[in-house]
Structures are given as structure tokens and as C-alpha cells.
């Protein structure tokens, strides 16, 4: 299983931030990719859907953002098990 940190483009400030959410995937990519690139035309795994449903806090504006656009959400590989 591979562990990924979720990073997202912030609608409040326009930067990309880690969201403090993580997912474990059996067959995930070896490099950073958008959710759209990985699952284009397919249903998203439950873990990824759950992350998209939860807001994250922008470290610049302190506002809470929910990014549901799959081309604006990135899986960043952290480790392998």
C-alpha cells in the first residue's frame, strides 16, 4: 500500500496547500498527480471521496475551503508499505 498526502488548490488565496488528509491506496501513482489524472472517467475510491467532502483550512486566510474540482486536488506520495 502507498500512502499519499492530499494537496489542494485553495480558492481563498490561489496557492496549493497540504490539506492534512491522507489516503492509503493499493495501486496509486509513484509521482504526484491530480485526482482527475488518476481516475479520469472512473468512480473515485471511497477514501478519496471522503477527503473531497471534508474542508481544509487555508494557512494564509484561515478560512475553510472544500475543493471538489478533481483537477485541483493532488495525491502526493509519502511512503510505501
From TrEMBL:
Q: What is this protein called?
A: Uncharacterized protein
What species does this protein belong to? Answer: Nitrospina watsonii
Amino acid at each position: 500500500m502507498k500512502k499519499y498526502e492530499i494537496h489542494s488548490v485553495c480558492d481563498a488565496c490561489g496557492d496549493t496547500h497540504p490539506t492534512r488528509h491522507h489516503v492509503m491506496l493499493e495501486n496509486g501513482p509513484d509521482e504526484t498527480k491530480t485526482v482527475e489524472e488518476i481516475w479520469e472517467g472512473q468512480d473515485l475510491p471511497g477514501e478519496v471521496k471522503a477527503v473531497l467532502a471534508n474542508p481544509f483550512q487555508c494557512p494564509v486566510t484561515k478560512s475553510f475551503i472544500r475543493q471538489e474540482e478533481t483537477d485541483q486536488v493532488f495525491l502526493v506520495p509519502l511512503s510505501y508499505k
